[in-house]
Design brief:
It is a single chain. The chain has 233 residues and is mainly beta. It folds into 2 domains: 30 residues; 199 residues, Galactose-binding lectin (Jelly Rolls), CATH 2.60.120. The protein has 2 helices and 13 strands; from the N terminus they run αβββββββββββαββ. The strands form 2 sheets. Strands 2, 5, 7, 8, 9, 11 and 12 form a 7-stranded antiparallel beta sheet that branches. It is globular and about 45 Å long. Bound molecules: calcium ion (CA) (2 copies). One calcium ion binds next to loops.
Length: 233
């Protein structure tokens, strides 16, 4: 092959690659569904995404102070949604944490058409700050997912990195996450395993959870988690 032909084929190859990349990007953009960017200030997700109201809570039950959820300054935007909590570790080493969640409009939503969930998050520690081991977990809740017939536990979910390294460290500044849904698994602590595919097909909430990983009775953890730009693609 002469050098001229050689460079022709290289150029042709690059042109084809550019076209292929362009096409892939077009498809990805077209299939992105915004769950919420919070800019309309109504604390309701975009109805077209199939999700509705935001809510928050803490666990285990019996915390002195219920967490509050409200609009907060956004990531390069006006609004985000936030949860402010003040938690205390009780007796019996039960996990202690707080959850900001968005529920589906219908009883459940099939997310099997999507490959990733994206969002931005920022954590401002309170007094006292959560321990270094605290983690932010993103989970898809699926209380009606198929399980064994005698399984009465409604607490079913798939969690990012559930069986290896749970979640991600709490981000001190706005951080962008794009999590592969293929890396969401049923947490080992749920014990009774169900069909994970059925969880993706019967999602009733997306939850952002701060698991404090506190270990000592009386230990406390406080702070504010803000979430912005939640999308599926
Ligand atoms: Ca925003
Ligand atoms: Ca809204």
């Amino acid at each position: 092959m002469t050098p001229i032909y050689s460079s022709y084929y290289v150029a042709l190859g690059l042109a084809l690659m550019a076209t292929a990349c362009f096409d892939t990007e077009q498809v990805a953009l077209a299939s992105r569904v915004s769950v919420d960017d919070f800019e309309d200030g109504d604390e309701l997700a975009n109805a077209a995404s199939g999700f509705g109201p935001w809510s928050c809570g803490a666990y285990p039950e019996g915390q002195d102070e219920a967490p509050s959820c409200e609009l907060a300054p956004g990531s390069e935007s006006t609004f985000a949604e936030s949860i402010t909590f003040s938690l205390q570790e009780g007796r019996g080493a039960k996990p202690t944490g707080a959850i900001l969640a968005v529920s589906t409009l219908a009883p459940s939503r099939d997310l099997r058409a999507f490959n990733r969930i994206g969002f931005r998050a920022k954590f401002d520690p309170g007094e006292p700050a959560p321990p270094e081991e605290a983690r932010l977990l993103c989970e898809l809740f699926c209380s009606s997912a198929d399980a064994e017939r005698d399984d009465m536990d409604p607490d079913k979910s798939v969690v990012y990195h559930a069986r290896t390294d749970n979640g991600v460290a709490l981000p001190g500044d706005w951080s962008t996450y794009s999590l592969s849904l293929a890396a969401f698994q049923q947490p080992g602590w749920q014990g009774q395993f169900y069909d994970e595919a059925s969880c993706f097909s019967l999602v009733d909430a997306i939850r952002f959870r701060v698991e404090t990983n506190m270990t000592t009775e009386g230990q406390a953890a406080a702070g504010t988690l803000a979430i912005d730009d939640v999308y599926l693609e």
